Amino acid sequence: MKGDNQMGNGIHTIHPFVLFFYYLCAGFFAMFFNHPLFLFAGCLALIAVNLTHVGGSRAMKQWTRLMISMTVLIVMINPFLNSGGSHILFYFRGKQVTLEATLYGVVTSMSLLIILLLFISLNIVLNGNKLLYIFSRILPKTAFLIMLSIRFVPLLKARLIEIQDVQRMKGMSTKQGTVRQRAKNGMAIIQILLAWSLEEAIETADSMKARGYGSGKRTTYIPYRMTPTDWKWLAYLAMAFTISLLGGLLGYGKIVIYPMLGTLHLYPLDWVVLGSSMAMCVFPIVVEGREQLKWNYSA
Amino acid sequence: MKDVSFSFPEAEEKALQHVNVTIHTGEFVVIGGASGSGKSTLLKLLKKELAPAGTLEGTITYKGKPVDDWEPRTLIEQIGYVSQDPDNQIVMNEVMQEIVFGLENLGYSNFEMRKRVAEMVHFFGVEDLLRAKPSELSGGQKQLLNLLAVLLMKPRVLVLDEPTSQLDPVAAKELLLMLERLNNETGMTIIIVEHRLEELYAMADRVLFMEHGRLLVNGPSRQIIEQLYRDGVTHLYPYLPAFVRLYMEFEPDPQRSAIPLTVKACKQWIGMDEQVPIDLVKVDLAKEHRHVLLEMKDVHVQYKKNSPFILKNFHLQVRKGEFFALVGGNGSGKTTALRASLGSIRPQRGKVIWEGRELRKMKDDEWLGQIAYLPQNPRTFFVQQTIKDELRSIGERFNVQEVEAKMDKYLQAFGISHLQDRHPYDCSGGEVQKAALACLLLSEPSMLFIDEPTKGMDPLSKQHLGELLSNLQQQGLTIFMVTHDIGFAAQYAERCAMMFDGEIAASGTPDELFKGNYFYTTAINRATRETRQAEVLTYEEAIETWRVPTTI
Amino acid sequence: MARSNNYLAIVSVVLLILLVASIVVFHYKAYLLLSLFMIACIMVPFFIRFEWREVAGREIVLLAMLAAIAAVSRVPFAGLPSVQPTSFIIIMAGLVFGAESGFIVGAVAAIVSNFFLGQGPWTPWQMYAWGMMGMSAGLLRNLWWMKTLWGKSIFGFVWGYVFGWFMNLWIIVGNIEALSWEYFIGIYVSSIYFDLAHALSNVFFLVVFGASWIKILQRVQRKYGLLSTA
Ligand SMILES: Nc1ncnc2c1ncn2[C@@H]1O[C@H](COP(=O)(O)OP(=O)(O)OP(=O)(O)O)[C@@H](O)[C@H]1O
Ligand SMILES: Nc1ncnc2c1ncn2[C@@H]1O[C@H](COP(=O)(O)OP(=O)(O)OP(=O)(O)O)[C@@H](O)[C@H]1O
Ligand SMILES: [Mg+2]
Ligand SMILES: [Mg+2]
User: Fold this and answer.
1) Nearest CA owner, ligand 2 atom 10
2) Distance separating alpha carbons of residues C209 and C204, to the nearest angstrom
3) Which of A128, A170, A218 is facing B104, going by the closest CB pair?
């Protein structure tokens, strides 16, 4: 899991709740508007956002293949598979390929792209503990269970290594033999892990109990404090979000695709909505930028 | 604790029988006894929340009030419990969250938590650990973390079950010193179960010995020692520090008050003398001519790319029929070295040569029968539901002749025949380990790899194990042991190597290696260094080499 | 216990129908948004139940450990990409510890494994699919045919497919508006091999290891009086 190495600068100083709210807003944006320009701008904004993260570009590289393949799949296949719409571009094996379908493919793929980009950023910024901190306020017990489970993973991996060694010495390998044989050995190893770890788990439970878990109401040690700055940022996001929401409900930033493509023309108010939603999407950049400025001036 | 008896559901005999103990506030109590004698059970009963399922007779009182009458919360807070395995006790995946876990459960305010954390963390001087993930800590640090997590709840009584059994001598020493400090500076009552008692006698106000669920002896250290010798309870002698035994046996008329409990005292008793030169036993060259069975040439190992090398140009030779011991601190890379020599991990550089051929070039079935490996944790070994079944199945896999006879032999040798039909996990730590060893020896390998075999073993079974291993060695078995139990290595191993920072810092006979060290040596060695008596590593050596007592 | 099982069954089925219906019927643009919302709505009640129920520390640890094991279970199969052990473990949890525990283990396993592989829009879908796998195993465990090896195998086989199909949905829902049969079929055909492998490995593990796993899990249950079977 991603560690808190770049803790304590830029976006990482913002309170998790604010960050979470940002991702909700941005996710909403991606799935709510369908005007190509809006979504395109959103894509650019989020790519930029990821670039500002430490290790963001590397993370994006990892996902590039999935993103591209998905985009291509939808943009290419969609027009040929469905033939709704009235602006016919050309005929393919006697099937009409319409402008609407093409455009629709583009729009869909872009909104999915934005969502993926959001998650990439989320995995970096709202790393494990912060996410769990948020949930621990809503579903404490579940969050604790997840936390516990995550804590076990490295332990189990180490144990797996140990088991594999021992069993290899007893002639049980997952490297050699038929698929059937290897699958069997593999699961036998998991079985040992199961028996062993469940036994050990009881000791963990005891140590929890010994430290009073389940004895009355639990408080949580709060590592994060909601600072005035956090409140300001929250207000900033909330405002941008409301404007976009209202705009969206009034139909701005949306286009009619089926059955017949409506106009793509942007009215002044469209620009307003676009502006506010962009302000919303680039929130992390704004934060980082402000930080930079501070440094430059103080220096 | 009055006349307490306790028996487990399926168990035929009682795990505890008529135990009577009174422990006063601020005492430092040490409990010793053979594995399976009911120490853990006793401790668990002291910590109400952990009392195992079973039938309890007699009454346990805390501050004159039966534990059941106390409200749970107070007991949780006032009685802290630290157990054997560092890993199992860690709940959270961040150190900070781990240490405040207890406080969270008891609903303390943020303010209180921050205050206590600041204080304790400073007391222990572990600020730098706070950001780490528990999975990245060394065994010693983990155990320290567990202690810290308990101490934050400000317990009056601290109950520890073999807290140092996983730690190397240095880390163990640190932990014990920490305990002593707590006991002295805060008057905290400390009840500790330990097998490695040497340092503890000096710290302890009282020592208890248990046997078959009975409380055998109970009193201040010196009194106990004297009593044991008076009654000639020979089978408990191994639990005493070696130099104490020397005193009792070499001193013409031992005085209770004069019994030396520390190295310092012992030195004074023997009497300083710089003259005696350290006469090193030369390695007899005959053995050096035995052909090399396992060789590691300039091996480099790292677990992840651009993570530090755990092994750096690591050279090693194990000759046929040799008992070789590799010692080193926690995290020094012993297990890694072992795994490399087993071919479990591919070295980035260097060769592992097994009987003149490179291991990675051999097919598995070429060495399968010949190499046996006992891992650091024996539980990884058991697939079957009972120990007997496990033995059988192994017998089948390596088609061993007259399995039954051999099985009984080993079960006897380890004194665990009575457990053969029990599930491996229903036994106490020491018992499981013995069972696993029995299983391993069954396949009669030509070379035996052991990782920390003496972990959580009591001195007696250690002695058995040691003798058994040497016997096997006599019969031509080559043994490669990884351990941080120096006493054991010094006593039974033929050649030792000390690991440091991924390399073999030094290697040679136990004498060459350990004599003259400060920490990486036995207490008795420290005690006998620069004295009128010959410097020795083990009690047995002293018995042989020392001059007649009268000259003292 | 029986009543709560019925409750679970009803809730899960009804809400699933609701989900599908709403997606097909609604004339609302943001289907993906909607679907995620629906899935959340379906799962929250179960988690809430878990929150409210009196849960012993041991039970939580046990569930967490099972989930963690399910999440790391792919490690020894590094060389065998087509083998899918996680589902088997989740089914086992459901069979022995009951519907609710089954659901929790499944859902949490999904979250945990994604914590290390990276969260994505598919996480909620996976949570739901695996959660339901565990839950259904728990719900059906007392039926006579589920007690037979055949029954279990068929159950595992079917789930292998259902899981794959369900996971395809999140792509489809993404552009449901353009849904056409060719498109639909195209996607399902492309995933058929994986689903088959998944189904077969479920069956294989159930046949070879089912019995011994049940024995182990029940032993733990007995020894520590956990999660009483009902
Ligand atoms: N859960 C259990 N069920 C049945 N018997 C048990 C259980 N745990 C321990 N015993 C038995 O009770 C006796 C005392 O066990 P205990 O763990 O207290 O020994 P111990 O002195 O702590 O041993 P060690 O030094 O190896 O930890 C042993 O004979 C053991 O086999
Ligand atoms: N699978 C692994 N992945 C990454 N690092 C590891 C792994 N196994 C061990 N290490 C690291 O390698 C170092 C040496 O570990 P190793 O277990 O060999 O030490 P050790 O001497 O056996 O310690 P101990 O005395 O506690 O058994 C440790 O710092 C450990 O963190
Ligand atoms: Mg014990
Ligand atoms: Mg080791």
Assistant:
1) B303
2) 8
3) A218
